[in-house]
Amino acid sequence: MYQPSMKERIAEQENEKLSLSSILEQSLEPPTLRLHPSLSTVYQTKIRNLSSALQDPALMTEATEALRELISEIRMLPDEDAPNGHRIELAGELAGILALGDAKTTKPAACAGLGSITMVAGARIDKYLPLYKAPTR
Description:
Blueprint: H1 4-26, H2 39-55, H3 60-70, E1 71-78, E2 86-93, H4 94-100, E3 118-121
Antiparallel strand pairs: 1-2, 2-3
Helix pairs in contact: 2-3, 2-4, 3-4
């Protein structure tokens, strides 16, 4: 199973690892993530559209199922500053959730989960998204 070329390849990879490690050590801080100034307005609009889709009887089932696929975790955390003494965090695929909020669609884009980052929408989300009780089956 052992091939002499394997030893050469391992040596190459070790050198590459050392090179990358030294580059990381030289980096003082990660680059700053800059967000578009109107991102919060766009987010609020998309959440409002999503909320409307969840209330529309014609779209409710499809929108609810799509949303369930995108939310990986719901956390309820104590928070003295919150109106009811707790806050709710939703963890999941933010890109897909925002795609659902687009007025023209009730399904996330086919590539919404590909390469997207799992994010948490927390603290103030209750300001924009009314509580919705999913129908029981």
